[in-house]
Amino acid sequence: MNSNEKDYMEIDLMRLLKAMLHRAWAIAIAVIAGALIAFAYASLLITPLYKSKALLYVNNSSISLGSTSVSISTGELSAAKSLVDTYTVILKTRTTLNAVIEKAGLSYTYDELYKMIETSSVNGTEIFQIVVTSPDPKEAEVIANTVASVLPEKISNIVDGSSVKIVDYAVVPSRKDSPSVTKYTMIGAVLGFVLAAGVIVVMELMDNLVKDEEYLLQTYKLPVLAAVPDLDADASSYGGYYGKSYKSSSGGKK
What we know:
Strand content: 15-25%
Order of helices and strands: HHEEEHHHEEHEHHEE
Radius of gyration: 35 Å
Structural class: alpha+beta
Shape: rod-shaped
Strand order of the largest sheet: 4-5-1-6
């Protein structure tokens, strides 16, 4: 081979496909094992979380925030969204959340409770939702309703002329929000398949054993001059030519 030529490897996709089909049993075992491991992990090791939400309505009348007057009409949804952002900041202040902790009798710190609460506008309207995530479904409902009851007073004390009304109280969630056991199981099955297929492909690419005349022709581009049968092999195996020794035109045996 000339020094200026680059080494390369030809990959026969059909050969790899046949190798995977030949070891389909191994792939099936890997898929089942991956699915079972992921299922057990999601079911037994991950703490299930529950979400409960309360809906509140933001007043759309004219209000004043300090010395600045803000006029909001039903058509000015962007202004309503601005109010939601303002109320979210007030909701997550230390004063508000400490009041929630005290009223609900919670054992959480301010930082822990802060991470459990999410707020967002509902479809860009004046209604926004308070979503509480907790490993205890009853606790999630209690926290959400406590926040909904404490927040209007806190906002009215800070934003002049504003008001927040409860549209819908939170309820105890009937099913967990996460983790999704089905999703984890499917991911485990896919990873099992990928791992098994990858190992089979690598093993096949690293296998340099001469199997038949066609392998010599395709891999080394050498014609076969003669084939020596294995006389000790069962005559019914591969037509009596099991464990052949091939001699190429270059004079070497494979």
